[in-house]
Design brief:
Elements lengths: L1 H11 L2 H4 L9 H7 L5 H29 L1 H17 L7 H29 L2 H30 L12 H12 L19 H34 L7 H27 L3 H18 L3 H29 L5 H25 L6 H22 L7
Length: 383
C-alpha cells in the first residue's frame, strides 16, 4: 500500500512540469517594457509556443517510446524541460528565448503523452479512474504552486522567474527512483485494422475544432489578462502572476469536483462549463480593480479545466475504436489552440483596438459555444 502511494505521487509529480507552461505568463508586461522594439504578439509567444512543440511531441512520442520505453521518455522529457526551461535566465535575445521555450514545450509533450499510458499500465478499474481524475487536480495544484513561485521570482526580474523550471530536475529524480521500469505497453484495445467511415472522421475532427476554438479563447485570457490589468492600473507589478495563480486555483477546484459536476449536470455539463468561461471574460470586461480581475481569472480557470477533460473523455468514449489516434487528434488541436492565441488576439484587434472590448467579444463567443456544447453533450447513440 505504501509503495502504491509512492508510485501515485511519483506519477502525479510530473504535473509540476506539464502544468507549468503558464507559470511565467505574468512576465509579459515586464518583458514588453524591457523590449520596446519587439512586437507584443511575438513576446506573448513566450507563453504559448511551448504548446505548439508539445503538440509535435505528442505526434512522435509513441515512436520514441517504442525505442526507449515510457519511463525513459518521462525522464528524457523532464530533463529537456529542466534545461531548456531555465536557460532564458541568461538570455536576452527574444528569438533564442523562443527557441528555448519551444524545446521546453517538446519536453512537456513527451511527459504528457506518457503519463496517461503509465496510469493505464499500473492501475485498473476504479483506481485507474481515480488517478485520471487526480491528474487534473494535481495539474491545478502544480500550476498554482509554480505560478506563485514564478510571481515571487518576477519581483527580482523577469529573467529570474524562469528558475521556476528547476522543478524539471526534481521530477527527473522522482521518476528515476520511484517509478519502476516498464516493458512493452499496449496503448489501445482497438483493432488496428478497424476501418472508420468518413462520417466518423468528420465527427472526430469537428470535436477537435471545437477543442481548438475553446482552448484558443481561454489562452487569450491567460496571455492578455496581465496586460489588461496593467492598462486598468489594477494592482502592482506582480498582478500578472497573481492572476495566473487565480486561474490555477480555479483549475484546481474544477479538477477536484469535475466528476461530481458531470454526473449531476450530464448533457448540460459542457454548456455550463463554457458559460463559466464567458462569465470570466465578462467580469474582466467590467472590472475596475484587482479583486474583480482575480475573480474573473478564477472563473476562467475553473471553466477551462472543466471543459478540457470533458472533451477528452468524450473522445475516449465516443471514438474508442480509434484507439490512440482519437486522443492524439484532440491533443494536437488542444496544443494548436494554445499556440495560436496571440494571433487570435491580433485578429480580435481588427474588430476593435480596445483590449477591454476584445474580452467582451470572447465572452459572447463562449456563449455561442455553449449553444454548440448542448448538442455535443449528448450521449453516444448505439445502434
Amino acid at each position: 500500500m505504501k509503495n502504491n502511494l509512492i508510485l501515485k505521487l511519483a506519477i502525479l509529480s510530473c504535473c509540476f512540469v506539464t502544468a507549468s507552461l503558464n507559470a511565467i505568463a505574468g512576465n509579459i508586461p515586464a518583458m514588453a517594457a524591457d523590449m520596446p522594439d519587439i512586437p507584443l504578439s511575438l513576446i506573448e509567444l513566450v507563453t504559448t509556443i511551448p504548446s505548439l512543440f508539445s503538440m509535435l511531441a505528442v505526434l512522435f512520442s509513441s515512436r520514441i517510446a517504442s525505442a526507449i520505453g515510457y519511463k525513459k521518455i518521462v525522464l528524457l522529457g523532464s530533463l529537456i524541460a529542466g534545461i531548456s526551461g531555465t536557460i532564458p535566465v541568461i538570455l536576452n535575445d527574444i528569438l533564442l528565448i523562443l527557441i528555448a521555450r519551444g524545446i521546453f514545450g517538446f519536453g512537456c509533450g513527451l511527459i504528457t503523452s506518457a503519463m496517461l499510458i503509465l496510469i493505464i499500465f499500473f492501475f485498473e478499474g476504479a483506481e485507474r479512474s481515480s488517478m485520471i481524475g487526480l491528474q487534473g487536480s494535481a495539474g491545478g495544484l502544480a500550476s498554482l504552486v509554480t505560478a506563485f513561485i514564478g510571481g515571487r521570482l518576477l519581483a527580482v526580474s523577469w529573467h529570474a522567474s524562469f528558475l521556476v523550471y528547476l522543478f524539471g530536475f526534481l521530477v527527473f529524480l522522482t521518476v528515476l527512483f520511484f517509478i519502476p521500469r516498464v516493458g512493452s505497453i499496449r496503448t489501445s484495445t482497438a483493432d488496428g485494422d478497424t476501418a472508420h467511415s468518413p462520417g466518423e472522421w468528420i465527427r472526430l475532427f469537428a470535436l477537435g475544432i471545437l477543442t481548438f476554438v475553446s482552448v484558443t479563447l481561454a489562452t487569450v485570457f491567460v496571455v492578455k489578462c496581465p496586460t489588461l490589468a496593467a492598462m486598468k492600473e489594477a494592482g502592482g507589478p506582480s498582478i500578472g502572476s497573481l492572476l495566473v495563480m487565480c486561474i490555477s486555483a480555479g483549475s484546481l477546484l474544477a479538477g477536484f469536483i469535475y466528476g461530481n459536476m458531470k454526473s449531476f449536470m450530464k448533457r448540460m455539463s459542457l454548456p455550463v462549463f463554457y458559460l463559466i468561461c464567458a462569465a470570466g471574460f465578462a467580469l474582466a470586461y467590467i472590472s475596475g480593480n484587482a479583486l474583480m480581475l482575480m475573480a474573473a481569472s478564477f472563473l476562467l480557470g475553473f471553466g477551462y479545466l472543466a471543459f478540457v477533460p470533458f472533451l477528452q473523455e468524450k473522445v475516449s468514449v465516443d471514438f474508442a475504436s480509434f484507439g490512440a489516434a482519437g486522443t492524439t487528434v484532440i491533443l494536437v488541436f488542444q496544443g494548436l489552440g494554445a499556440f495560436i492565441a496571440p494571433y487570435a488576439g491580433t485578429l480580435l484587434g481588427l474588430f476593435t483596438s480596445s483590449l477591454n472590448s476584445q474580452f467582451m467579444i470572447c465572452a459572447f463567443l463562449y456563449a455561442a459555444l455553449a449553444a454548440v456544447g448542448f448538442f455535443v453533450g449528448n450521449e453516444k447513440k448505439t445502434a
